[in-house]
Write a structure and sequence with these properties.
single chain; about 400 residues; alpha+beta; about 25% strand; binds zinc ion
Length: about 400
């Protein structure tokens, strides 16, 4: 099947694909509350004639279309999204799914219900191409990507496919990796006293201040593909919370984006050195890797350290180069290969030994903002792209 035929097939399903994406956006699905969206995805996969559709114990929806003996492929998207915040700040209501000037608006439209809809349709329409599918194709809609990847971590163990395409936003260009993420908490303990007599206590804030200044000057590891690792102090909390009491303890969250090969232990040791160096007399301080307890909408509970692995597929990997050639031909334009700045579920799959590449509709700079919107043409183009990649391994 040539590019024009693929385009025509997708074009003939334009209205229902757009309507399905709108329904997904109109159905809020914060992490742990993906049940309603999962039901929509499941129903659509069944309607599109997948061979098998099931929901696993953590609530991921998986649809399978059987194929030949080629390397099995999974198209992967997540069903959850970040909070929309105050709806009044949005130029268009966040759960409207309204199409304005060719763009579909709303929280999750780019991250990543557009890619999810495109993948669901690609997995269904590929059957109607009249050519045998070279390998088994799985489409997975996973839970809780935004809070630690409960769904992907579960799926990476349960479904050992060989190749994965992650649909996070890339304006339909190819991606071959990203840095990892480690969330750490720095703790300080001093002695709390009445704020009218600060000299009697040990106020951790002064050690924290020196530490934060030091974070900015910390020498960071670098990588030819990803540049430098970065670290950002984010949330800070002190206790007790009364304004007329000096704190006895302060807790600071650090968001560390690590280049490949830079492990959590190395990072912890580096930060611990800085904490030690910045302590004022009487204050103690230590670093810990944050962890999260996640509960799925199906009731499964899991505790994970807040670590998102990086992943890198070699720039000259044969599948990546083939994908570039196939897409350039079918999409009729050049398709550059780059890397993502943010972390994705791809790291969990790569850690399980799968080869991971990325491609998804939408502009990643609009993700998590009140300007989130997806060009409908990119939604269609990504559907064509996913089908082309499934047909040409
Ligand atoms: Zn995402």
């Amino acid at each position: 099947m040539n590019g024009t035929e693929l385009w025509n097939l997708v074009e003939s399903h334009r209205e229902e694909l757009v309507a399905f994406t709108q329904r997904l956006v109109q159905t809020p699905s914060m992490p742990g509350q993906e049940g309603a969206v999962a039901a929509l995805v499941q129903a659509e996969m069944k309607r599109l004639g997948y061979d098998e559709v099931w929901v696993d114990e953590v609530g991921n929806v998986i649809g399978q279309t059987a194929g030949g003996d080629g390397p099995s492929l999974m198209l992967n998207a997540h069903m959850d999204h970040v909070d929309a915040g105050d709806p009044a700040r949005w130029p268009c209501p966040p759960f409207s799914g309204e199409v304005r000037d060719g763009e579909l608006w709303g929280r999750g439209s780019v991250d990543m219900k557009g890619a999810l809809a495109a993948m669901v349709y690609a997995g269904g329409l590929v059957r109607q191409c009249g050519v045998p599918l070279p390998a088994s194709l799985y489409v997975s809609a996973v839970v809780q990507e935004e809070v630690g990847g409960l769904g992907a971590r579960h799926l990476a163990r349960a479904l050992p496919v060989q190749r994965v395409i992650v649909g996070e936003a890339s304006q339909n260009q190819l991606r071959r990796g990203h840095r990892g993420r480690v969330e750490l908490i720095a703790h300080w303990e001093g002695r709390s006293v009445h704020a009218s007599m600060p000299d009697l206590g040990v106020n951790p804030h002064f050690s924290v201040a020196r530490f934060i200044q030091g974070v900015r000057e910390l020498p960071m590891a670098t990588d030819p593909d990803y540049g430098a690792s970065t670290v950002a102090p984010t949330c800070i909390r002190s206790e007790p919370t009364s304004a007329n009491v000096t704190p006895g303890a302060v807790h600071l969250v650090l968001d560390w984006r690590n280049i490949p090969g830079e492990g959590a232990e190395e990072i912890t040791a580096k930060l611990q050195d800085l904490v030690d160096h910045c302590l004022e007399p009487g204050c103690r301080g230590w670093i810990e890797i944050a962890s999260k307890e996640l509960v799925s909408y199906t009731g499964v509970r899991a505790v994970y350290p807040d670590l998102f692995p990086s992943f890198t597929t070699a720039a000259d990997h044969p599948w990546l180069l083939k994908a570039q050639e196939v897409l350039s031909s079918v999409l009729g334009r050049s398709v550059p290969i780059g890397t993502w700045r943010f972390a994705t579920d791809g790291g969990h799959f790569a850690e399980a030994g799968m080869t991971v590449i990325g491609l998804g509709p939408g502009d990643d700079r609009l993700v998590h903002t009140v300007e989130e919107r997806l060009p409908v043409e990119q939604l269609l183009e990504s559907t064509v792209a996913y089908m082309a990649l499934a047909l040409n391994p």
